[in-house]
Amino acid sequence: MQYVTLNNGIEMPILGFGVFQIPAEDTEQAVTQALAAGYRLLDTAAAYENEEAVGRAIKNSGIPREELFVTTKLWVQDAPAEINTRRAFETSLNKLGLDFVDLYLMHQPYGDVYGQWRAMEALHREGLAKAIGVANFYPDRLVDLILNNEITPAVNQIETHPFFQRTADQELMAGHGVQIQSWGGFAEGKNDLFTNPVLAGIGQEHGKSVAQVVLRWLVQRGVVTIPKSIRPERMAENIDVFDFELTGEQMAAIATLDTGHTLFFDHHDPEMVTWLAQRRLNA
Ligand code: NAP
Questions:
Q1: Cα-flanking dihedrals φ and ψ of residue 93, to 5°?
Q2: Residue 224 Cα, ligand 1 centroid: separation in angstroms?
Q3: Is 110 tagged catalytic?
Q4: Which alpha helices (H) appear in the chain, and where do they start and end?
Q5: Which of 39, 111, 118, 277 could share a disulfide with 34, CB 3.0–4.6 Å?
Q6: Domains of the chain
Q7: pLDDT tens for each residue of 29-77
Q8: pTM: predicted TM-score of the whole model, two decimal places
Q9: d(CA 186, CA 183)
Q10: Ligand 1 pocket, residues with Cβ under 6 angstroms
Q11: Which of the following is catalytic: 39, 48, 110, 138?
C-alpha cells in the first residue's frame, strides 16, 4: 500500500474501500471481506446508514485500531450547528464503536457550514477526529472556508473519474495543502466505463482490467481512491494496482476522456440543494 501524508502529518492509505449503497444488512460481510483482502481505509457516512455494520466488522476483525483508517461524514444538520455537529459526531462514533475516527468529513457544502466547521475543529483539537475535511466542495467554497477559518481541511472528497478528472481543482487544492480524494472513481459504471475502448486497450497492454487501469491512473495522479464492491473477487482485483505503471502516453490518452462535467448531480442546482436539505438524520 502507498500512503499520502495529510497537511497535519497524518498518513492515509491511497486506496481504500467505500460502502455507499451497500445495504446495512450486507455491509458487515462486505467490510469483513474487504479487510481480509487487505483494505485498511474504510469510508462510510452517517447518511449511508451502515456505520453500525462497519463497526461490527472492524471489531470482529481483530485488526489493531492503529492499522485502520476510518472515515465517516457529517450530514447536513439543523442549526445550531455547534450542538448538532457534536451530537451527530457522537452518534456516528457510538455506532462505529470507536473512540476516535481518523477522518471526519463535512458531507455537503450546505447548511451552517461555518458552524459545522468550527464544531469539527473542536472535535479535532480534542483528538476525536485525527483529521477533518470536506466533501463536494467546489473551489470557490473551499477557498472561502480556508480563508475564514483556522484549520484548513485535510481532504476534499469529490467526484473524480476518467470522465470528470478535476485536474485544475486538484492543482488548486494542492496549492492550499488539501488532499484530493475521489468518490465514484468508476463513475459507478456510467458512460460504459468498464468497456471503454481507451481504458480496455491500456488494460490489455498491462494484462490488467479496466477497473485496475482507472484505479492505477488515480493513484499515479496522487488521488486517494475508495472503490466500492460487494464481490470479493472484485475487492481483490481493485487493490491489486501497485505492480504496474501507466506510461506518460497512457496517462495522456486517459486525459482525453475528460468531459469536464459531473455525471451525477450539479451542486450548484437549487433543486439539488433543496433535495439534500430535506434529508434529515438523527431526527
Ligand atoms: P464506484 O466505486 O465508482 O463504483 C461502484 C460500482 O462499480 C458498483 O456497481 C460495483 O459493483 C462496480 N465495480 C466495483 N469494482 C468493479 C470491478 N472491478 N469491475 C466491474 N465493476 C466493478 O461508486 P461509489 O460507490 O459511488 O463510489 C465509491 C465510494 O465513494 C463510495 O462507496 C463512498 O464511500 C464514496 N462516495 C462519496 C460520496 C460523497 O458525496 N462524498 C458520493 C458517492 C460516493 P459491485 O458492488 O456489484 O461489484
A1: -60, -45
A2: 14
A3: no
A4: 24-37, 51-61, 81-96, 113-125, 139-147, 167-175, 197-206, 210-220, 232-239, 248-255, 270-278
A5: 39
A6: 3-277 (3.20.20.100)
A7: 999 999 999 999 999 999 999 999 999 999 999 999 999 999 999 998 7
A8: 0.97
A9: 9
A10: 18-21, 43, 107, 135-136, 157, 183-189, 194, 211, 226-231, 234, 237-238
A11: 48
